[in-house]
TrEMBL record:
Transmembrane segments: none
Listed PANTHER family: CHAPERONIN (PTHR11353)
Organism: Tegillarca granosa
Main location: cytoplasm
Coiled-coil regions listed in the entry: none
UniProt-listed Pfam families: Cpn60_TCP1
Region described as Disordered: spans on this chain: 1-34
Biased composition (Basic and acidic residues): 15-26
Protein name according to UniProt: T-complex protein 1 subunit delta
Upper lineage: Eukaryota, Metazoa, Spiralia, Lophotrochozoa, Mollusca
Amino acid sequence: MPAPKAANPKSGGGKRSEYQDKEKPAQIRRSNITAAKGKIPTGVTQEYFSVFLIAVADAIRTSLGPRGMDKMIQAGNGDVTITNDGATILKQMQVLHPAAKMLVELSKAQDVEAGDGTTSVVVICGSLLDACTSLLEKGIHPTSISEAFQKAAAKSMEIIEGISTPVELSDRESLLQSASTSLNSKVVSQNSGTLSPIAVDAVLKVINPATATNVDLNDIKIVKKLGGTIEDTELIDGLVFTQKTSGGPSRLEKAKIGPTLLNAVMENNVVVSDYTQMDRVLREERQYILDIVKKIKKAGCNVLLIQKSILRDAVSDLALHFLAKMKIMVVKDVEREDIEFVCKSTGCRPIASLDHFLPENLGSAELVEEIQTGTSKIVKITGVANVGRTVTVLIRGSNKLVLEEADRSLHDALCVIRCLVKKRALIAGGGAPETELSLRLMEYANTLTGMEQYCFRAFAEALEVIPFTLAENAGLNPIATVTELRNRHAQGEKTAGINVRKGCITNILEENVVQPMLVSTSAIHLASETVKSIMKIDDINKFDRYSFSVSFQIKDIVKVR
Ligand SMILES: Nc1ncnc2c1ncn2[C@@H]1O[C@H](COP(=O)(O)OP(=O)(O)OP(=O)(O)O)[C@@H](O)[C@H]1O
Ligand SMILES: [Mg+2]
């Protein structure tokens, strides 16, 4: 792009320059839209593009829906990820254009707000941006577009709320169906029969269904262990440590648990000069450790959890020997961030000094056992009195890639149930809500006039991208499918959706494809907010790292001279 020719303020009798490049804001906007949509436009110079730009909205469109494709992403360090999750794909992409980065943030925002729908939100945003391009070309002012889109988004919320059906948390069948819908589109879709009940039960166990308005997913600990298959994944009312015990019995009933931050080793270096002194030091060390172990035993503790220490071994071999003799099970190398969860689950307190090793600071569990899984062992603590209402999900998988994706998919399913706790309403899936919404918005647009009507229509049409893409990804004719879907909705079939299994349009509720209302409302709300922000930008100022380093070097040279 030619640089704006700024007039010299000194020339022209000291008058300030009136020159303004009228083309620049439009070009910036166009560049931002295409960057977010992922195509480099003709006629726009590369000035506003980074060296590396990946197609964003278009790139992840193919992964929408149950027949969507997965992405294989290789990170800079060679790590490979296989995923279908929109937020994960975008997070791993190296998007450098500032406008394209807004889409990454959008997907993250949806992940925080709803947890699911992170692909849909970006696809909707891409389609809305497409609509903006044609509206801009018609000469409509960007502010008018963004204002009308905001109104259309607000109207959409009303319409979606109108077509939603309330759901009770006691309606287990509906919860299972919505968890399965979110798992259907994942790599682990064939295991949704195992994972859906786990997601539903996990959430219901950590909340009080009568009063809860939100779920703290930190109360559900996900532990991944390589080996077995996803079918072996289980929900545990308690805790799991993926390391084996370091001594003591391997099975204990009626356990008293003490998580400790203690270092049972002598802390100082002692310099000894003869054998008698050495003998004394060894004897004293023995006595010192024995005293510690006796105190632990006296407090009634029979399972000792020791926090991982990075500076040295948290527990010496001698201490382990005494602990084993006293029949105290030891699990060492417990991660620091797990201590809080352990305390919440078992009702114990972290103990940092021996003086605090008191019976009231210990937690209790019915059973602590070491179990052989495949080639390694794990420690399971079960039968905790549900003190802090926590659960653990032990995910099993035959390889690292599957294990990671199962974790992400389960997170989506948990989020779907969390959405239903937050807002107890369900809508149909399979493109039905978007088609219905589009139709109702079109009807509403007829009551408007002028530019606003244009923008409302464009907004309504843009929403059809979801059924269009679902059909496209399922190998159906997208135009024919969307047209038929529109007709069926016009005839009053509010739940007609794309049946990807049969390859036709049916009442999608019969297929049990339902999703939380919050996922759709949040997607439309966040997408239109992002479009508004992109529309408002008319200039990009870049901090040039290169020029900074050059000036820095020159300064250095001057200093040397
Ligand atoms: N069995 C099904 N038949 C038809 N449509 C389905 C079915 N299962 C899911 N869908 C639709 O697929 C879409 C969701 O696809 P997908 O899960 O790939 O993306 P997302 O939820 O937007 O993002 P992500 O799951 O990556 O966070 C929703 O519109 C949903 O209605
Ligand atoms: Mg999903």
